[in-house]
Design goal:
86% helix; mainly alpha; globular; 16 helices
C-alpha cells in the first residue's frame, strides 16, 4: 500500500514550505542587519543631522500604527490553521467574513487616528522644530497613514498564508523589497532628495508587497464562496486578539517610544542620536528573536506532560545558555569597540548613542534569554497574566521617561525606559516561580556565573592589550580587533563555559560522521 496518502502529501508540502520559509527568514535577518549597518551612515551623511532626526521620528511612528492591527494577524493565523486541520471550509469562510467587518472598523480607526496626529503634530513637536521641519513631519505622517490603510488589511493575507502552510511566498518577497529599498534610497539621496522622499519610497514598497501577497492568496485559495452575510460571531475573535494586541503594544512601547519622547523635548539632531542608539539595541535583540521563534513547538511538547519545576527550569537553562552566550559575545565586543565603530560608522557627533545602545543591551539581556519561559506560559494558556505584567511595567517606564527627559535629558529618557524593562524582568521571574515553579537561583547560577566571569576576563585582557599596542580608530584596526576578540571568546567559552554535554554536542556538529 502506498504511504503517499493525501494527508501525507499535505504534511510533506507544509514541511517543504516551512523549510523554505525558515531559509528566507534567515536571509531577511541577514539583509536587515547588513543593510542597516551599511546604509545608515550613507543616509546620515546625505540627509544631515536635522533631516535624519526627522526621518527617525517618522520611522518611530510606524510600530504604533501597526498596533492598530489589534492582534488580528496572529488571530487569523491561528483560526485558519484550525479550520484547515478540521477541513472546515464553511467555517473558514464565515471567519474571514467576520474579519472583514473588523478590518473595516480598523481602517476607520487608522484614518481618524492619522487625522488627529496630523492635526496636532505642530503642537506636539513645535517646541524644538522649525516651521519647515514641522511641515516635513506633517507630510511624512500623511504618507504613512494613507499607506497603512492598505498595509494593515494587507497583513491579513500574510496571516492567511501562515495559517494555510504557505510560508515561503511572504518571506521570499521580503528580500526583493529590501534590495529595491536599498537601490531606491541610494538613487534618491544621490539626487538630493530629503527624508520625505525616503518615507514615500518605503511606504510604496510596503503597499506593493501587500497587494502582491493578496493576489497570491486569491490565486492559491480560491475564495469564491466568500460572503459577508455568513459572518460568524465576532466576540470570540475579538476576545482572542485583544490579549495578543496588548502584548504587541508592550513590545512597541519598550523602545520605540524613546524616539517619540525625544522628539517632544530635544532638537532633531538629538532625536537622531537617540534613534541610532535604539536601532543598534534592536539589532542586538534580533539575536535572541531568531532563536526564540523556534521554541514554541518544544514548549508545547514540554507542557503537555505537566512537567515539574525542575524540568521547566532545565528547559529554560538549556535555551537561555544558548541565547546568553551569543548575546554576551556582542556585549563584550560592543564594550571594546562600540565607540570606535560609531565614530567610523556614523560620525563623532553620534558618540552618545554608544551609551544608549549599551544600556538597552544590558537591561534587555535577561528578559530575552528567558523568552522560552514566555513560550511555556503561552503553551499553558496563561498568556493574559504575562501580557498584563509586562504592559504595566513597560508603560510605567514610558510615562517616567517623559518627565525624566525634561530633568535629565537623554540619561533620564533611557534610564526610565531601561528601568521599566528591568522591572518587567523581575516581575516575569516572580511569575515564572509561581506559575512554572522555576528554580530561579539555579537558573541564574547555571546560565550566567561562568559566562559573565569568562567574558569579563577576556574583555579586560584584550583592553589592556589594546592600550599597550596603541589601538587606533580605523576600519582595519576595528575589524582586526573584533576578529581577535571573537576567536578568543569562542576558545574561552568552549573551554571554560560549556558543560561536558554541550562540548560533546559541538563536537557532534563539527564531526557529524565520526
Amino acid at each position: 500500500m502506498s504511504s503517499c496518502t493525501p494527508k501525507t502529501l499535505i504534511y510533506t508540502h507544509m514541511r517543504s514550505e516551512a523549510t523554505r520559509g525558515a531559509i528566507y527568514n534567515y536571509i531577511n535577518l541577514i539583509l536587515i542587519v547588513v543593510t542597516g549597518m551599511v546604509l545608515t551612515p550613507f543616509v546620515i551623511r546625505h540627509l544631515g543631522a536635522s533631516q535624519y532626526g526627522l526621518y527617525s521620528l517618522s520611522a518611530a511612528i510606524l510600530p504604533y500604527l501597526a498596533l492598530l492591527d489589534m492582534g488580528m494577524s496572529r488571530t487569523i493565523t491561528r483560526y485558519i490553521a484550525r479550520y484547515r486541520n478540521e477541513h472546515d471550509t464553511d467555517g473558514e469562510m464565515r471567519f474571514l467574513a467576520a474579519c472583514s467587518y473588523i478590518y473595516i472598523a480598523i481602517i476607520l480607526v487608522i484614518a481618524i487616528s492619522g487625522a488627529i496626529l496630523y492635526h496636532y503634530s505642530n503642537s506636539i513637536w513645535s517646541h524644538r522644530f522649525t516651521t519647515e521641519e514641522l511641515q516635513d513631519v506633517q507630510q511624512m505622517i500623511g504618507i504613512i497613514v494613507m499607506a497603512h490603510v492598505v498595509i494593515i488589511p494587507g497583513n491579513a493575507f500574510t496571516a492567511i498564508c501562515n495559517g494555510s502552510g504557505l510560508f515561503a511566498f511572504p518571506r521570499a518577497i521580503q528580500p526583493i523589497k529590501l534590495v529595491l529599498r536599498v537601490v531606491g534610497v541610494i538613487i534618491l539621496l544621490l539626487c538630493g532628495t530629503q527624508a520625505t522622499a525616503l518615507i514615500m519610497l518605503e511606504m510604496a514598497l510596503s503597499v506593493v508587497v501587500a497587494i502582491a501577497t493578496a493576489l497570491y492568496v486569491i490565486s492559491k485559495r480560491h475564495y469564491h464562496t466568500f460572503s459577508w452575510q455568513t459572518a460568524t460571531d465576532l466576540r470570540p475573535i475579538i476576545g482572542y486578539s485583544g490579549w495578543i494586541a496588548l502584548y504587541a503594544i508592550t513590545i512597541a512601547l519598550q523602545w520605540n517610544m524613546g524616539t517619540l519622547v525625544a522628539g517632544m523635548h530635544f532638537d532633531p539632531s538629538t532625536v537622531g542620536i537617540v534613534g541610532i542608539g535604539i536601532m543598534i539595541g534592536n539589532i542586538y535583540g534580533y539575536i535572541a528573536e531568531t532563536i526564540n521563534r523556534m521554541t514554541l513547538p518544544r514548549a508545547t511538547r514540554l507542557m503537555a506532560h505537566n512537567p515539574s519545576g525542575k524540568r521547566t527550569t532545565d528547559g529554560m537553562i538549556e535555551v537561555g545558555r544558548l541565547i546568553a552566550i551569543a548575546q554576551w559575545a556582542v556585549i563584550g565586543a560592543f564594550l571594546l569597540f562600540g565607540q570606535s565603530f560609531l565614530t567610523l560608522w556614523a560620525g563623532e557627533s553620534y558618540q552618545p548613542a554608544y551609551y544608549i545602545a549599551l544600556a538597552i543591551m544590558l537591561s534587555w539581556q535577561i528578559q530575552q534569554s528567558q523568552d522560552f519561559g514566555n513560550a511555556l506560559i503561552e503553551a499553558s494558556g496563561e498568556v493574559r497574566t504575562l501580557s498584563v505584567i509586562n504592559f504595566i511595567a513597560i508603560f510605567a517606564g514610558v510615562i517616567a521617561s517623559y518627565f525624566a527627559s525634561q530633568c535629565w535629558g537623554i540619561a533620564g529618557l533611557i534610564g526610565s525606559l531601561t528601568g521599566g524593562t528591568i522591572v518587567a524582568t523581575i516581575a516575569n521571574n516572580i511569575y515564572y516561580r509561581y506559575r512554572l515553579h522555576m528554580q530561579v537561583g539555579r537558573y541564574f547560577t547555571q546560565v550566567y556565573v561562568r559566562l559573565i566571569c569568562a567574558t569579563a576576563s577576556w574583555v579586560t585582557i584584550l583592553w589592556f592589550m589594546m592600550q599597550m599596542l596603541g589601538y587606533s580608530t580605523s576600519w582595519w584596526c576595528l575589524l582586526a580587533g573584533i576578529a581577535l576578540y571573537l576567536i578568543g571568546y569562542v576558545i574561552i567559552t568552549y573551554t571554560c563555559v560549556l558543560t561536558p554535554t554541550e562540548r560533546q554536542i559541538v563536537k557532534n556538529y563539527v564531526r557529524p560522521h565520526r
